[in-house]
Amino acid sequence: MTTLSRQLPDFYEYHENETQYYLRQMKYPDDMALVHKWMHEPHVIPQWQLNKSETELKVYYEKMLADDHHRILIVGVNGEDVGYTEIYEGKRDRLGLYYDGDELDLGWHLLFGEKSVFGKGYLRPVMRLLSFYIFENAASAKIVGEPDHSVKPYAVVVEDMCYEAQRLIPMPEKTAMLYYCFRETFYAKFGHYLKDSKAFQHQQLAKAVS
């Protein structure tokens, strides 16, 4: 049986302000050198704690890739791979131990590995990319999240992106804030972004074939 997360496409493209954002399926083992580099960046280590040898990372990702409630994707901006995301099924994830989830709930974890993208305003567009990727390709009524509640700047961003705080969750490595992003609320605020993206892609296609 194909699981909810495995039904998601291997590639998804989104445009905002004429900037291209994309998700592509991580290629194993081809992308391991890139992921290894990112996991050893000083800004990534504290949150992800995967600053391991390349061999240890391969073992870790072989297990991840064999787990059918995850999708591992590379995030790109204007043709350059800049980050990494994990899309997961909320009820089948460890998060399912802490909340009463719906079978169609999906969530994501995100890191920007390339420091060159910092300060360029990419976070919100990439969060819209992830949300549209899920809502456009799955019947999920909501997206879930569980970031560390102590990261206050992140809290401001997610709430602006229609992620609504629910309650604190005591997890072994952190106290997380459970967030829900409801499909109807998200599209009411950001649906026009997707229409603009599709219109831009049609324009680019028309230029390419003319």
UniProtKB/TrEMBL annotation:
<protein>
    <submittedName>
        <fullName>Acetyltransferase</fullName>
    </submittedName>
</protein>
<feature type="domain" description="Acyltransferase MbtK/IucB-like conserved">
    <location>
        <begin position="24"/>
        <end position="71"/>
    </location>
</feature>
<dbReference type="InterPro" id="IPR019432">
    <property type="entry name" value="Acyltransferase_MbtK/IucB-like"/>
</dbReference>
<dbReference type="Pfam" id="PF13523">
    <property type="entry name" value="Acetyltransf_8"/>
</dbReference>
<comment type="pathway">
    <text>Siderophore biosynthesis.</text>
</comment>
<dbReference type="InterPro" id="IPR016181">
    <property type="entry name" value="Acyl_CoA_acyltransferase"/>
</dbReference>
<dbReference type="GO" id="GO:0016410">
    <property type="term" value="F:N-acyltransferase activity"/>
</dbReference>
<dbReference type="GO" id="GO:0019290">
    <property type="term" value="P:siderophore biosynthetic process"/>
</dbReference>
<keyword id="KW-0808">Transferase</keyword>
